[in-house]
Structure formats: structure tokens, C-alpha cells
Amino acid sequence: MRMKVALIPGDGIGPDIVAEAVKVMGAVGTKYGHKFDYSFYLAGGVAIDSVGMPLPESTLLGCQDSEAVLLGAVGGPKWDHLGGDQRPEKALLGLRSGLGLFCNLRPALLYEQLAEACPLKSELIAGGLDIMVVRELTGGIYFGERGRNDAGDSAYDTMAYATIEIDRIVRKAFDIASKRSKRLMSVDKANILETSRLWRSVVNTIAKEYPDVSVDHMYVDNAAMQLVRNPRQFDVIVTENMFGDILSDEASMITGSIGMLPSASLRSDDFGMYEPIHGSAPDIAGKDMANPIATILSVAMMLRHTFACEEEAAAIESAVGAVLDAGWRTGDIMSKGMRQIGTKEMGTLIAQKL
Predict the structure, then answer these.
(1) CATH number of residue 54's parent domain
(2) Which of 176, 234, 295, 343 lies in disulfide reach of 17, CB 3.0 to 4.6 Å?
(3) How many distinct structural domains can be found in the chain?
(4) pTM of this prediction?
(5) Annotation marks residue 245 as catalytic
(6) Is residue 266 part of a domain?
């Protein structure tokens, strides 16, 4: 199979970790007879420095012409002085909207080998954690009308949702839940927000089409509390854009290993953009210190969701587990008795395990 992938290394450690992901994709290609066709593009701070804008038109067009996008990281203190529309993070919003990516998948998986890094009591995570947060990505308050009054002393941000926007993300969540433990938790604020009341109504309507999936509703403030009180009650969580942004970060941190977690942003067909959830960490860029595992696991998600290569995706995940079992660690997940290695060696070891 030929796979056309757009690569956006981005800022900070982005080029370091994307290089290791490409190394692993090479091993996948060798083992399974696939051919990856890569194209490299600029986005984020490096694009601002090069062409004066966070998302050049050539990048968006190149991504639209690909089958999948692998993104490293964007942003950093160097560009913090810029206005909102000129910041590196604007590239992410532009890619999501320009590529029609409405569904964000954020798995929060606690690796048994890293259980001691979890900040929760051991009895709360006995048996492990495996939560999938399904976040709506192109609607809500982040994309609503915003502004200030003429005096500049009052501001507003508008949260708006249409039934069609809720319908498509909720169906994705039901489909995912039906392939896991058949449990879905819809998170909203229906006691206060009208958009949440519409959200809950759409969920209840679609639920009738999935009789094998158990559906519950939870207010977002309670969900935030329950994630640290009893995280194992959750399997698949579906929620709107801002709530999903917050809850997925919380869910990732209870695993204790933000450097291990991938993400996928999908649209209605097989196209997707894949990226680690961590930031650009410019302080360690180019120092062979970054953990590439989240980016490598993002490749596994890409193979699974865009190219329907389940065996290849599972092989990557198994290789990561085998390297961890052997005691190899980058600095961010280092613990007593383990052997510390750098970015490049971690990528090489995972590729070799394949």
C-alpha cells in the first residue's frame, strides 16, 4: 500500500520527534510492504519566521492533497508577544477548520510499566486506565463570534452549536463505544447552557440507534471531579470543544505521562491529522532529550484510523510496550532502576522491535 503523508515538524522538539516517527514508519514499511510518500510543510512559529504567517497557504493545500497529516508541535515563548491571529497556535485552528477535522480523539492510557507515575492512589487505578475522550473540534466558543466594545472594557465570546455539528461527533463517539466496552458518557452543562440542552437532546435521540451502548450524562464540573475520584468509571467520554479541551488534558495527566499520549483529529472520511498532546518544549529542542513515544503512537493511530492497518498499528503499540518492559526510558519517564536513553535511541529501539 502507498500512503501519502504530509509531515509538519513545527517548532521546538517537533523536528526531533517527527524524525523518530518517520524512522518507525520506515520499519513498518519494510515489515509489511508499505510505501510512505512524505511531503514536508511549515506551520507555527517556524512558518512565522520564514514567511510571516503561522499557516501558509501552501501548507494547507499540501495537507489537503495528502491522505493524512503528522504534526510535531507548534508554539513557544519566542512568539508569545504576537497578537492572537498571528500566534503559532493559530495554525492548529486553521488546519482543523481548513481540513474539516471535527472529531478529536484523545486516549488516556495508563501503561502498567509507568503506573508509579500516576498521581492518584494505587487503589483508584487498580486494573489500569483506558479512557477515550471524543472532543468536538470545530464548533463552540472557540469558533463563535467574539469581540470587545468600543471602549475596550467589555468582551464577549459566543458558544453556538447546530444540531448537525452535534450529530456527527456524537455518532463518532457511539461508533467508538460500540467497539470498546459499550459505555458512553456524554458531558455537558445542561443545567445552565442552552447549547448543552440541545447537545443532550441530540445524544438521547441518537442513542435509540445504538441499543447495545449504555449512555449516561454528567455535568462537566462533576466530570472533572469524578476523573480524579473514580477514573475507572469512564470508558468513552464525548463532549463539546472547550469542555473536551479541559477534560482531555486532565485525563492525560492522571496517567502521569504526558509524553506518552497521542491524538487524532478526524473528519467524516478516513482523513486525519495526528499529533502528540504535549507542547513544543523549546528548552530541550535539538538536545536528544525529548520523548518521541507520543508521536510514534500517533503514527499507530494514523495507521488504524486513516489506512485501516490494524495489524501494523498494534505492532507499533506492542513494540513500545516491549521497549518499556526492557527498562528503557527517556528522561521524562525515568524512574529508579531503569536505563535512560535519548530521543534517537528510543526511536531506534522501537523500530528494531518491529
Answers:
(1) 3.40.718.10
(2) 295
(3) 1
(4) 0.91
(5) yes
(6) no
